[in-house]
Amino acid sequence: MILFYAPGASSLAPHILLQVSGLGFTLEKVDLTNKRWAGGDFNLINPKSYVPVLQLENGQRLTECSVILQYIADTVPEQALLPAVGSFARYEALQWLSFLAMEVQKNFITPERHGGVSANFLARTEAGQQQTRERVSPRLAFIDQHLAGREHVLGDGFSALDAYLFTLLTWARRLAIDLGQWRQLDRYFASLKAHPAIHQVLETEGPPHALHPAD
Questions:
Q1: Which strands sit side by side in the sheet containing 61-63, from one edge to the other?
Q2: What are the phi and psi torsion angles at 182 (to 5°)?
Q3: Which domains does the chain have, with CATH numbers?
Q4: Global pTM value
Q5: With contact defined as beta carbons under 8 Å apart, do 182 and 137 qualify?
Q6: Which parts of the chain are beta strand (E)?
Q7: Is 73:17 a contact under the CB 8 Å cutoff?
Q8: In what residue span(s) does the GST N-terminal domain sit (predicted)?
Q9: What is the mean pLDDT of each run of 10 residues along the chain (215 residues)?
């Protein structure tokens, strides 16, 4: 499998889950500003012009973070990275997956878009960053309450949801959102950051693009 990614983008989540799963994969870094990768025009890989994209061994491609996470988890069902298909627990997990995608990730995406450049998905102006903090904070507070007495989103075991939530919390840190105001969330983030697989992925990707003030 090939994961097309950009450092610090939502592709960090499937990168983490692939690393945890032990599945074989290779990486292709994408320059989202210029829509290029080592093989040329990234729009030929994904006409939607954003990551992640997971290319399978047969050449088929999947897009959308939440779908890719499900595919990875279902490829190694013995690892219980998501509950079994058809179980009520699976629907509860999908409920969280939808919440993270539509209520948390969506509210991190800036309306500024910096001339439509998708590489700059987080606000660079102070006004835009403040708007993001106001939109996202109630959602993070809700998650903080859920994490009371839990090591992970679904309980004791690491799941696809943890890979996703950790990624979104890195965005919060980049926007100077103080996770310390939510004791459970702060504990959770620190714990996951020390996870060997996550540490390896962060080392591999390196720093994300800088959030310089808009010109």
A1: 40-41, 36-37, 26-31, 2-5, 53-55, 61-63
A2: -125, 100
A3: 2-78 (3.40.30.10), 82-195 (1.20.1050.10)
A4: 0.94
A5: no
A6: 2-5, 26-31, 36-37, 40-41, 53-55, 61-63
A7: yes
A8: 1-80
A9: 96 98 98 94 95 97 98 98 97 98 93 68 86 96 97 95 98 94 98 96 90 48
